[in-house]
Amino acid sequence: NLEDRMFGDRQNTSLIFPVKFSAFERLNFTSTANFSFEKLYPSNIPIDFSYDLWLEQNPSSGNMPTSQDLEVMIWMYCQDNQPIGQQIGSFHMNASFNGNTINATWEIWYGKANDWPTVSFILEDPAVTMNSNISLNISKFIIEGGIVSGENLSNHTLMGIEMGNEFGNENLSTNISEWVLSYYSFDVDGSRINII
Fold first, then answer.
1. CA 151 to each of CA 21, 69, 145, 178: distance values in angstroms, whole numbers, following the listed order
2. Which of 170, 166, 175, 173 lies closest to 41 in space, CA to CA?
3. Residues 58-99: tens digit of each pLDDT
């Protein structure tokens, strides 16, 4: 999460959090990550590897999101897992996969598991492996997420960027997911910040 103090003065001055939703209509905000799963137990455990973005209307520290807020998830990898809600359509956008630019297809899912709505983009094509380098235009997902939600997000702010994975089978006593992020960077209108 770029709000964390752990990043210190490495936060890009072109993108100081929180950021107004409307800013992403003009920002070219891309993210590049190189991830690899090192260990899964069991090997067919349900997992995803994703960005998790929170757009909040009245954000305040320590408070849960409300029904007026929006969660946007971008699943770059998925194995036997399913997002919140139901699939309602698809979304196409150029992205870089292991150095190759491809017009990728993403499933769009929408639903509520808690009080707030969640829009999830699940990579459908191309298929990627557990060891991939992916570069995405995050701005376009944020704007499309707002359109899908049907909400007026003009007064909402993006509080930060989270990345990680959800995993597990509640019927198993042991679930293990170990992964490595070997490269992670953001580009904001051509200005780069290297996180890892």
1. 12, 9, 10, 37
2. 175
3. 877 677 888 889 999 999 999 999 999 999 999 999 999 999
**70, 100 contact by CB (below 8 A):** no
Which residues have a Cβ under 8 Å from the Cβ of 168 and sit 6 or more positions away? 45, 46, 175, 177
Q: Is 89 helix (H, G, I), strand (E, B) or coil?
A: strand
Phi, psi angle pair for 7, to nearest 5°: -85, -15
**Count of CB atoms situated within 10 Å of the CB of 180:** 11
Could you tell me if 180 and 36 are in contact, meaning their C-beta atoms sit under 8 angstroms apart?
yes
**Nearest-5° Cα angle at 62, 57 to 64:** 55
Starting at the edge strand found earlier in the chain, the sheet holding 157-167 runs 19-20, 157-167, 47-56, 70-79, 117-125, 100-112, 86-97, 131-137, 29-41, 176-188, 191-194
Q: Model pTM?
A: 0.91
Count of CB atoms situated within 10 Å of the CB of 64: 8
Residue whose C-alpha is closest to residue 72's, from 18, 12, 122, 2? 122
**3-class secondary-structure state, position 114:** coil
Sign of the Cα pseudo-torsion (80, 84, 87, 89, in order) = negative
